[in-house]
Design brief:
Protein name: DUF2062 domain-containing protein
Distance between the termini: 30 Å
Strand content: under 5%
Keywords: Membrane, Transmembrane, Transmembrane helix
Largest sheet: none
Structural class: mainly alpha
Length: about 180
């Protein structure tokens, strides 16, 4: 943002007040551009928000979503990169994915544990159970310490699948142009 634009926005905020200025800024910079999004942009941003939202450690889904946004935008033409409205949609959907994230977290941990056991010919057992979610709510620090290997393996499974999933999202975005109706 240019210095003149910053000064102009600060003067508008001073003239209108903080709340009205924030509402106007949000409409101008988030709502209106989001309404102008193409179907491809909406499909891609929602899909990236979903994938980032099921990161195996619930408090860390936002950095995972931002990583996915940067990873997706790397190596694509400028017109297909994430813009502010697309990132906003991805972040909102990421936050809405918490219930699914809590359901899938033990699955990622079990997949990681299974892959580790197959690759190393060992018998690592992290005891993933329904008690894990209750312990996570009651004593988060102790639970993370006790299940750190399982969480780490779950993160590795998610990270290994991320390039494949983001590639599928790229294909899905390209195919969404051919769906009937809309833009």
């Amino acid at each position: 943002m240019l210095p003149q634009a910053v000064v102009r926005e600060l003067r508008a905020m001073q003239r209108l007040g903080l709340r009205p200025w924030l509402l106007e800024w949000g409409k101008e910079n988030l709502v209106r551009p989001a309404r102008d999004m193409t179907r491809r942009q909406l499909v891609v941003s929602a899909s990236v928000g979903i994938w980032g939202g099921i990161f195996p450690i619930p408090p860390c889904t936002m950095p995972a979503t931002l990583f996915c946004i940067m990873f997706y935008s790397a190596g694509v033409p400028r017109l297909q990169r994430f813009n502010v409205p697309m990132a906003s949609v991805a972040v909102v959907i990421n936050e809405l994915m918490l219930p699914l994230d809590l359901l899938m977290m033990p699955g990622f941990m079990l997949l990681g544990q299974t892959a580790y056991n197959k690759l190393t010919d060992s018998e690592l057992d992290c005891h993933v159970s329904s008690q894990l979610l209750e312990d996570l709510q009651e004593q988060p620090a102790e639970t993370f310490k006790r299940f750190s290997t399982g969480f780490g393996l779950g993160i590795l499974v998610w990270a290994a699948a991320a390039p494949l999933v983001l590639g599928q999202i790229r294909v899905l975005g390209a195919l969404s142009k051919f769906a009937p109706g809309g833009r």
